[in-house]
Every structure is written in structure tokens, then in C-alpha cells.
Amino acid sequence: MSVTAAQGFVAGGAAAGIKADGSLDLALVDAGHSVPAAAVFTSNTAAAAPVQLSRRHIADGTARAVVLTSGCANAATGAEGMAAAERVAELVADHLGCDPTEVVVCSTGPIGTRLPTDRVAEGLSRLKMSREGAADAARAIMTTDSRPKEAVARGQGYVVGGMAKGAGMIRPDMATMLAVITTDARLDSATLGRALRRAVDRSFNALDIDGCESTNDTVVLLASGMSGIRPDEEAFGTVLEKVCRDLARQMAEDAEGASRVVTIELSGASDDETALALARAIADSALVRSSFYGADPNWGRLLAAMGATRLPLDPSAVTIAYAGVVVAEGGVDAGADPDLVSEKLEDDFTVSIRVGDGPGRCELLTTDLTPDYVVFNGERS
Amino acid sequence: MSVTAAQGFVAGGAAAGIKADGSLDLALVDAGHSVPAAAVFTSNTAAAAPVQLSRRHIADGTARAVVLTSGCANAATGAEGMAAAERVAELVADHLGCDPTEVVVCSTGPIGTRLPTDRVAEGLSRLKMSREGAADAARAIMTTDSRPKEAVARGQGYVVGGMAKGAGMIRPDMATMLAVITTDARLDSATLGRALRRAVDRSFNALDIDGCESTNDTVVLLASGMSGIRPDEEAFGTVLEKVCRDLARQMAEDAEGASRVVTIELSGASDDETALALARAIADSALVRSSFYGADPNWGRLLAAMGATRLPLDPSAVTIAYAGVVVAEGGVDAGADPDLVSEKLEDDFTVSIRVGDGPGRCELLTTDLTPDYVVFNGERS
Question: Is the Cα dihedral B113, B114, B118, B121 positive or negative?
């Protein structure tokens, strides 16, 4: 009941026929009336029509419902695509008896194809909305995800729950990560917005599978207030972050073609932003991620990847450990036996990098790059 | 005779024992006395000791000789590595009877290992220097290159020739591209420097195999002046660029694990720099390069990769053609038959992207990302 675990929400999923194979492809989450809401969208300048529309609809800090379609991203579809996204909002508004501006629209699937809005209309008529419908909703947003992703965490007297799909743009054509999170905590949209931004930075934005930011990435948070509890922002943020991190971890574990989740801990940078830029350079390197696949503690590639960012970096201040074993210290080889280290890299592992004495740090999740990834993403869709 | 095709140069290659398999691993190019010279080095902040040393040695605009070792990058080796690079320059200076500051030092191979300078000393004693020695020199700088890379072009009364190794950091641990280019044109070092910078930007820097800039990348140009011809800068630049582009193309074609060279032509950007940044975003995307491998004209991934740079981009102004067939126009699908386009992508091909009406353009060489690349780079060295 993830996305309906908090009081005040119903959800459902249906097969509208957007996907050719007849599986679930339409999800709806409904709060029954407009409630405080916040969202974080992709910063890709080629943002899809639903992202552009939803940005406008949530600008007033409220939303009633979130509709999600899978099987078509409605991205790179021009004016016709924007009309289709608007049509979906209208259809949902008619179905629920509300205004289209109360509806957030999300789409995921191949870029460049047209969204069949007539099928969305049909699908809506078949939707059964209930608290139990959360399971179908979580399935209906899947593209090549191998399993639905749901998470729930409890605060003092209130609940935060959510569902998500995807892992960056790791799937063939299946752009996008989408997440809908609900809570029955009583908070205004400004507080929700701040807490969501922070939680997203520490969870979904700390997930970097292949460096590809999609055109459709969206995380929406709705707060019914029905618990009557008004938690302080920090406490709420902690619970929200827990849900977001849980969902992000599930995405990394389900990343197509990946055989290991690798956590990159980077510390000692001048600030957190620099730490993240250095860690991302590591996670974006095909060479580094190939060495993860080979269980090879090839720290020289990490150093080279960080150096190529041209950020200030003193190699002689760099210490690198794989799975707790220091392999480089002061920027030179520490004499660890690569065979012994390699044995520790057969499953998920952590690489810890210290680049100096600064306060900046970050933690980034990535995966290894595998031949399966290339084959999978090389297949025509 | 590539690197000795111009008058005034001799070269040689020897097996010094840096590489365990006993193959050639020490190359020397000698102009006989100090001549005008210029170089372009990696901008990686973790630049290797030989790069740091050579920057100083060539700062006065002259050099006599270039020594190159393969089998060890002498990178991430700290103060000891710098001492080793200095020792190599001293050994060569003793051998030739010149000052160490007249020697440019280049190294390529695994990062983090120590360069055995005693073996370099032995290798020098076995070197046979001649014009014919260019072939051995070109072989001695190879790491996992499958063949030596040499090129020659002729200007009006003068010659430009060179040798190179590598392809970015595409090889397992074998960081680095190195190139030595010589000419008998009579030019001062300032002119050489400007011409080299431009030629490198349009050749080696327009080659992006896996987005990894090595710690050791070096291109050196020596001008003996022995033809007596003083060409104008533009004419010389054209000949030099021809040699550099020839060598860069050979690198792309030899890129380990790659099955196709893909040329990305991007035009219509606000300036050349923006054009290059957008093209690089495409070449750096594992998703895009997987689709090249799959012969899939998946233009949506190109659009998403460019959008993720956050550079100004108007999707509705984007036109994309694969192998001459327009697949997207005005940012939306142009209705081309993907099967017919795919047939044209089985061998090397060009992707042409127009992003607007600006004057900025670039051409970038990359390759497809293949399962072989991952396997190759996942192997422990």
C-alpha cells in the first residue's frame, strides 16, 4: 500500500493499451481534493511535454491527483505532444470532477513516439481506485523494471509512502525515473518543497547509473494532512529521505545489466558540491565502471577520472580504499595485494575516497558497466 | 619513416625490459641539436611526472630530443616518480651529449607503477638511431595498440611527419595518447605552438572514445628548419592538421573493442565551443554509444544527452540525420523507416545534427560501445 499507506489517498492501475503487450500502463493517485504538494523535475533542457505542463500545474503549491502513463514518454513530440499532455490532464479532471490544473501528469517510455490519448480515456474508465490499488499503480508505471518499487516509513503519528520506477536512463528507450510520494503529515507546500529538494538530493540525485538525465524525471510529493500531525521540518525530512533512499536503492539494485551496486563515498573536498562533482566523474567513467565489473581495484582510473574534471585536486592528498582496504595513500600505491582486494569486490561494495582535509563529502550509488548493459541498450526498441 | 620523414631527424626503438614480454618499449627521436619546438599536454590535474617535467623542459620553446617509454605511465608515483622522470632525461642527455632540459620525456602504460630507470639506461645503450629507425620507434610506443600509427604530409618544399599511439584512455590501464611530430619547415616556436594548438583541437581533441582524459597525454612538435622553407602559418597549419587528423583517425579505427567509427557533425550552435560541448555530451553517453553498437537510429537519446548538458537548446530547432537520412526534424520524428536507416549503420557512419541557425560547428570522432570494450577494460592488468 506504499503510495496509499498515508491516510487520505487512493490509487489504481489499468491496462489502457499504450503498451503493445497489454500490461498495466496507466496509474492514478488521488487525494480526493487539492492538497499541499511539491515536485522536483528534470533539469534537462529537452524536458518532455508532461514535465512542462506539470511544472505549471504545481506552481501554486497544490495538487489533487497524479496520473502516470508508461509505454510512451511523450518527449520530443512538439506542440502535438503538449496538446496530448493537456488532454490527459483534462480527461483525468473530467473523471475525478476537478480542474485540469489540479492534475500532475507523468509519462515514461520511448522518446519521440505519440501518446494515444483516446486509449488513456478508455483506461481511466476501467480504473478501480482504492487503498489496495497502490500495488497495481506501482506495477503500471514499470517499463523494463523487473519489479515494482515501493517504500514506507513512519514518523511520530504520521506516515510517508511512495512508489517509483526506473533507474536514470538505464533502460533501452525507457527514459526516466518517476516517483510519487504521499504523506498524511500536515505541512504547507513551502515546507514540503524544501524537504523534498533535500531528500531528492540525498537519494535519487545521489544515484548515477549511466550519467544520463532523462527528459521526464519527476518526483511528486502530496500531503493530505489527515493525520492531524504537524511534524517539524527536520524530523519530517528525515522520514521522507528514508523513503526516497529506499526507493533509490531499489532502482540501483534493479538496474538492467548491472551485477553490482557500488557506493562511492567521497570526503575531504572543499565543499559538498565539489565532492559530488568528483564522485560523479568517477561514476560517469566507462573505464572505471568496467573495472568494477572486473572486480579490479584499479584506483589509477579513479584518480585520472577526478583529474579530468579540472577541479582543484592534489593527487598527493588522495587516499582510496576498496571495500575497506586502502589501495592508494598520498596518491601512490599503498602496497595492498590486488588479488585479496579483488575477492572482496565480487558482490556490492563501497569505494571510499579521501581527497584532502576539506569538509565537503557525498555518497553516490552507481553500478558496474557490464556487457549485458551494452547488449540490452544496443537492441532496437 | 614518419617521424623522420622530415630532414634532420633520426629515431630508434629498443626493448629495455620495462614491458615484461620483452617487446619494444623505449623510443627516441633526436634532432641532433636544439630546435624550435612546441607541445600540448593533458589538462588532467593529476598529470603524470613526465608531463610535469616536460612542461618545464619545453617552456623555452626549444627541444632536441623526445624519449618515450611504454609499459609504465609513471603516473600517481609521487616524488619518486618525478625523480624517475628526471633520471630518464639525464640518461638521455648523457647518451646524446646534451643538457637534460633539452629532452622531452613521455611515458605510457599502467598508472601507479614505478618506472625502472636502470632498464631505461640499458635500453639506451642498445638503441640504433637512423632515419629508418622511425618504424621501430613507432612500434616501441605501442601499448595495446594493434598496429603502429604513422602519417606524413608534404607542404611546398617541406615535410611534416609523425607517429602516435593509443586512443584516449580506451585501453585497459594503458592510459594515454602520445604523438611526436617533426617537420623540416623553418618556423619559430611561437608559430609552431599556435599551429599545433589549432591542429590538436581539430584532430586529437576531436576524438572522444570514452570521455577519459589521461594523465599522460602529450603531443610534441619539433621543427629542424632544414628544408630552408619558411611557410606561412596558415599553410603550415593545414599540412600539420592533415598529419594530426590522419593519426587521430588511425587511433579511432584501432580503438579496442570498437566495431564502428562514428563521426558526429554538429552545426548551428551559437559558437564552436558550444557545438563541441553538445557533441561531447553525445559521445560521452554510454546509452548513445550502445545504440551505435546496435545500429539503432535512436535520436531521442541524442536529444536527451544534449539536453542534459543544460546548455541552451531549443529542441524544436533540432534536425538529426543518420548516414544522410533525416530521422528527426524540428525536434520530432521525421517518419524515416528505422529498419532502412539501420541497414546503413552496419559499418562506420556519420551522425549529422543541426541545433539551430548559429555559426558554431564541430566534428567529433567516436566509436560504438561494445560488450568487448567492457570485457577488455574489466580485465585485471
Answer: positive
Cα angle B217, B219, B220 (rounded to 5 degrees) comes to 140
Residue among B378, B175, B284 nearest A258 (CA): B378
CB neighbours of residue B82 within 10 Å: 16
What letter does residue A301 receive in the DSSP assignment?
H
Instruction: Look at the block and give the residue holding cell 576498496.
Output: A322
Q: Angle B267-B273-B274 (CA atoms, 0-180°, nearest 5)?
A: 60
Pair A275, A266: CB distance under 8 Å? yes
Residue A9 in 3-state DSSP?
A: coil
B344 touches chain A (CB under 8 A): no
- Nearest 5°: CA angle at B167, between B161 and B169? 140
- Contact at 8 Å (CB) between A99 and A135? no
Total residues belonging to chain A: 381
Residues of B in contact with A282 (CB under 8 A): none
Highest mean pLDDT among A103-107, A369-373, B176-180 belongs to: A103-107
**Among A284, A293, A306, beta carbon nearest to B378:** A293
| pLDDT tens per residue across span A129-177 | 999 999 999 999 998 888 999 999 999 999 999 999 986 555 434 346 8
- Between residues A110 and B295, the one the model is more confident about: B295
CB contact (8 A) between residue B371 and residue A375: yes
Q: What is the overall mean pLDDT for chain B?
A: 91
In chain A, what residues touch B215 (CB-CB under 8 Å)? 300, 303-304, 307
Which of B353, B344, B342, B259 is CA-nearest to residue B306?
Answer: B353
Which of the residues B176, B182, B274, B366 is marked catalytic? B176
Per-residue model confidence (pLDDT) at position B201? 87
The letter for the amino acid at B134 is A
Buried b / exposed e over B201-234, threshold 16 CB at 10 Å, is bbbbbbbbbbbbbbbbbbbbbbbbbbbebebeee
Judged by CB atoms closer than 8 Å, whether chains meet at B112 and A46 is answered as no
Query: Quick check: B6 pLDDT over 90?
Result: yes
> What backbone torsions phi and psi does residue B168 show, to the nearest 5 degrees?
55, -140
Q: Which domains does chain B have, with CATH numbers?
A: 2-250 (3.60.70.12), 261-378 (3.10.20.340)
The predicted structure's pLDDT at residue B59: 96
pLDDT in tens, A64-76: 999 999 999 998 8
What is the pLDDT at residue A268? Answer: 97
Euclidean distance between CA atoms A137 and A150, whole angstroms: 10
Q: Give the span between the Cα atoms of A16 and A68, in whole angstroms.
A: 11
Percent of residues, chain B, with pLDDT higher than 90: 75
CB within 8 Å of A153: residues ≥ 6 apart: A159, A160, A161, A239, A240, A242, A243, A246
Closest Cα of chain B to A212: distance in Å?
7
Q: What is the pLDDT of residue B172?
A: 37
**Secondary structure (DSSP) of A67-120:** EEEES----S-HHHHHHHHHHHHHHHHHHHTS-GGGEEEEEES-TTPPP-HHHH
Helix (H/G/I), strand (E/B), else coil: A237? helix
Q: How far apart (Å, rounded) are the C-alpha atoms in residues B286 and B370?
A: 10
**pLDDT confidence of residue A210:** 64
A346 inside 8 A of chain B by CB: no
Measured CA to CA, the distance from residue A311 to residue A300 in angstroms comes to 17
Taking each helix axis from N to C terminus, what angle separates B78-96 and B117-126, rounded to the nearest 10 degrees?
20
Contacts (Cβ under 8 Å, ≥6 apart) of B80:
A332, B114
